[in-house]
């Protein structure tokens, strides 16, 4: 098998159901998800030991799901069955809720960082937000699997929660943004 095909030498690429320019919004959206996937892989290399087996397994699951998201975004005509489902979103929500309980209480904005692993997960989070913006732009012009947008929105929250838990398990405190007001409160709590 050859790795190169030469079919993209003039700035076009194939999608599921047609060919487009390589700077098409659809290509930008799934290309940005590919970046997220690479940063997730990088973060996984920094998660050593038993303390992170659960997170490592989840991140590997997410890598497969990011491929599913990219595949769904590559469908031009929307006639093929989509792979990304509401159950994938629900899984992320369940894990976010569990990690929020595990991490120390949060009142203020925090700076991305702490440990090397948490910093890498924060990079994945910010690139996920960029991917979300690309998907929103795409959805304004062409049909997409709307659940992909929900999944990516939840994924960035998941990365935030996981980065905080990684720091907590390592005993590395999150660094609060020094000029932050109190922005996170428990439900029902008044200022």
Automatic annotation (TrEMBL):
It comes from Anoxybacteroides voinovskiense. Its EC number is 2.5.1.17. It catalyses: 2 cob(II)alamin + reduced [electron-transfer flavoprotein] + 2 ATP = 2 adenosylcob(III)alamin + 2 triphosphate + oxidized [electron-transfer flavoprotein] + 3 H(+); 2 cob(II)yrinate a,c diamide + reduced [electron-transfer flavoprotein] + 2 ATP = 2 adenosylcob(III)yrinate a,c-diamide + 2 triphosphate + oxidized [electron-transfer flavoprotein] + 3 H(+). GO terms for molecular function: ATP binding; corrinoid adenosyltransferase activity. The keyword Chloroplast does not apply. It comes from the Bacteria. Pathway: Cofactor biosynthesis; adenosylcobalamin biosynthesis; adenosylcobalamin from cob(II)yrinate a,c-diamide: step 2/7. Homotrimer. InterPro entries: CblAdoTrfase-like (IPR016030), CblAdoTrfase-like_sf (IPR036451), PduO-typ (IPR029499). Residues 3-166 form the Cobalamin adenosyltransferase-like domain. Keywords: ATP-binding, Cobalamin biosynthesis, Nucleotide-binding, Transferase. This is Corrinoid adenosyltransferase. Signal peptide: none annotated. Belongs to the Cob(I)alamin adenosyltransferase family. The keyword Cell cycle does not apply. Transmembrane segments: none annotated. GO terms for biological process: cobalamin biosynthetic process. It holds the Pfam family Cob_adeno_trans.
């Amino acid at each position: 098998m050859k790795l190169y095909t030469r079919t993209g030498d003039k700035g076009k690429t194939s999608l599921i159901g047609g060919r487009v320019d390589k700077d098409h919004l659809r290509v930008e959206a799934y290309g940005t998800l590919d970046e997220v996937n690479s940063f997730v892989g990088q973060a996984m290399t920094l998660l050593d030991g038993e303390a992170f087996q659960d997170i490592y397994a989840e991140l590997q699951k997410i890598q497969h799901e990011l491929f599913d998201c990219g595949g769904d975004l590559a469908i031009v005509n929307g006639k093929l069955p989509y792979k990304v489902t509401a159950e994938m979103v629900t899984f992320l929500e369940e894990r976010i809720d569990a990690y929020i309980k595990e991490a120390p209480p949060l009142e203020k904005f925090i700076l991305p960082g702490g440990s090397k692993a948490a910093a890498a997960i924060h990079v994945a989070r910010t690139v996920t937000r960029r991917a979300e913006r690309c998907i929103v732009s795409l959805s304004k012009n062409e049909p997409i699997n709307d659940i992909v947008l929900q999944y990516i929105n939840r994924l960035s929250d998941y990365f935030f929660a996981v980065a905080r838990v990684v720091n907590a398990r390592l005993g590395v405190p999150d660094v609060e943004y020094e000029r932050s007001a109190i922005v996170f409160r428990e439900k029902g709590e008044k200022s």
